[in-house]
Amino acid sequence: MSTPAVLRGRVLAGAALVLASAVVALPAPSAAAARAVPTLARPCAVPGATRAYQHVVWIVLENVGYGVVGSPDAPYLNRLIAQCGLATNYHGTTHPSLPNYIALASGSAQGVSNDNDPASHPLAAPSIFSQLNGKWRSYVESMPTPCDKVSAGEYAAKHNPAAYFTNLGPTCALNDVPLPAHPSFVQPFTFVTPNLCHDMHDCSVAVGDAWMRAFVPKVLSSPQYRAGSLVLAITFDENTSDSSNRVPTIVLAPSVPRGLKVGAYLNHYSLLRTTEQLLRLAPLAGARSARTMVALFHL
Fold this sequence. Notes:
Distance between the termini: 70 Å
Order of helices and strands: HHEHEHHEHEEHHEEEEH
CATH superfamily: Alkaline Phosphatase, subunit A
Shape: globular
Number of helices: 9
């Protein structure tokens, strides 16, 4: 016959076994659950961020050059610099504007040395647009019609490289479109061109910075950025006229360390190569020998 003490011991042992089984049965937290989601307050240095980037967005501004770093007229851009990463030794490839845009898109200025509209420079060379076989988007603020080849008002065709490549065919009109109020970043590559005022070409740094304050959160709030699959690069086509052509380039991604400064020599071909590497494309022309930014920015 069992004594009360023995019975109590058996009950306690049974309860302990049930509890242990329940603990063992609890599912381990998934990697997705452990990974934090980037926010507007913390777009970079996100705990648990992985490096599985499938989307790249470029925003190209105009002419101000490296002087924007630390400028009181650019508080928003400098906040992004403090939160994310900055290339401190990054350079445009030439002057004036257009050859820089063509170089960014194709790895070469393609012999272009002026700012003429596409009618003067029909280009059949490969570009990141042709590499992606229609899986790209170019948003151009104030452009009158899709793939517009004539400058008008605040729209400058010289800042819209897709309009110069004749081998894009009908995909140019489908994918090179006026900037909508609610842009999508679902495509692997998106090129964003503010208008002549908002890119700081015709208006002040403060005006351009205010535009960026309104636009960049649309990228950072996108499903792609919040899922940790999008890299945003903000650069300038060239500086004013300095032969060094040094410009700031800001890199935002969840895995980029906060306040990172990269002093390695980089240029527009580096940005193209980095993008092609992330999107698993072969590097074009000058991008083949340019230094990639992937490891430098923890992408």
